[in-house]
């Protein structure tokens, strides 16, 4: 089954009309995974036995016409808890963790009878931009197996790009959906903070984390986002606003006539690869030719975003990760003398280097005497970043630029240099700091590798962002390009 040649609506219709059974589709998905995942290494856990049993039961019952994802196998990032299915966050400390409940997003999909294909690799606790920080395996970019898939939702992006699954759930704290989407030439969307419940997402930076989808098309992404959005009593930061049917608004009449696009000069400035800039500039020209108005603007605090993000997200992480102590959660060290030893050894053995680095940075930033200089300062910068966007959105509908400053780089090339790694987030973290919706869509190739165009919307205006993305997609062919797995570029 080639998922690039179909889409969610088509598969759903075929299932309802019994042109294909859920069992056939599930088997075809695992055939894809088995043919490719030896090379891609996206999956940490396969859910094959359960998936086939669920598919068979659904075939008995029949697929309901009002359940869009019924009988369709989808991938799930492994920091989203799934009842009775191993959930590791790609950490050794959760090596044997089988949650006793489902995340709200999973509950919502289960209510629609989706099929969980399995759990996908990530940087440990979503900390990283290349998926090299997984304690288990390095996932490979589907376009060039010697390159990283981006991160932290690298398993999700690579599995979709490789055509293993139709779509996969990811999470985004500072770019973790958009950067891998860009590197793998797929569509990735981080909703407005509060659009989707965070209940059951293994918390990293609670004021920044959001769940979203990686897909091969804008419409699939929009349709799937509506399914997981909405208020949840378990997450009081989730919004009570109505959830539009994002997908229903994407049709032949969708256009960008008069759309006011702001392009921050900082997003096409120093540090951004020239070839990436060229692809983005060509995309903007294309928007102009479709009737959009493109203006250069400034988001002057962009340059402080990375520093402020790493202080805020690490501070929140240092608190959130306290629960992994070998007692409440986590593999318990065995050779121990006393309680303190349990904590120290379990955490020392269970966490990888990057996670330890962030816990230390966060604990330091929050400690008495340093709080004002670091955490408070970072919070002030956060307010300025939010204001920058508010100013631009007074007379623009969307902001556009690259999702990442470069294309996917070689595995191993940045891993020893955390600061270079962090700088790859320069164009994505401001969006999380401001709580805005943002997405990356395929905009072309540079040196044979995909480049993602980032589209940023006003708070809770995913609709305008999706319409802009859809219009671009429908009038270009970039999203049709498929990686040739194994054939190196
Ligand atoms: N989690 C994310 O959204 C990715 C970001 N690169 C980080 O390491 O924090």
From TrEMBL:
Superkingdom, natural source: Bacteria
Residues of the active site: 77, 152, 176
The EC number(s) this enzyme carries: 6.3.5.7
Ranges where the Amidase domain occurs: 24-464
InterPro entries in the cross-refs: Amidase, Amidase_CS, Amidase_dom, AS_sf, GatA
Family annotation (SUPFAM superfamilies): Amidase signature (AS) enzymes (SSF75304)
Any one cellular-component term (Gene Ontology): glutamyl-tRNA(Gln) amidotransferase complex
Top EC group: ligase
Pfam families: Amidase (PF01425)
GO BP annotation list: translation
Reaction(s) catalysed (UniProt annotation): L-glutamyl-tRNA(Gln) + L-glutamine + ATP + H2O = L-glutaminyl-tRNA(Gln) + L-glutamate + ADP + phosphate + H(+)
Keyword line: ATP-binding, Ligase, Nucleotide-binding, Protein biosynthesis, Transferase
PROSITE patterns according to UniProt: AMIDASES
Molecular function via GO: ATP binding; glutaminyl-tRNA synthase (glutamine-hydrolyzing) activity; transferase activity
PANTHER family in the record: GLUTAMYL-TRNA(GLN) AMIDOTRANSFERASE SUBUNIT A, TRANSAMIDASE
Summary of the function given for this chain in its UniProt record: Allows the formation of correctly charged Gln-tRNA(Gln) through the transamidation of misacylated Glu-tRNA(Gln) in organisms which lack glutaminyl-tRNA synthetase. The reaction takes place in the presence of glutamine and ATP through an activated gamma-phospho-Glu-tRNA(Gln).
Sequence similarity: Belongs to the amidase family. GatA subfamily.
Subunit architecture: Heterotrimer of A, B and C subunits.
Protein name per the record: Glutamyl-tRNA(Gln) amidotransferase subunit A
Gene, per the UniProt record: gatA
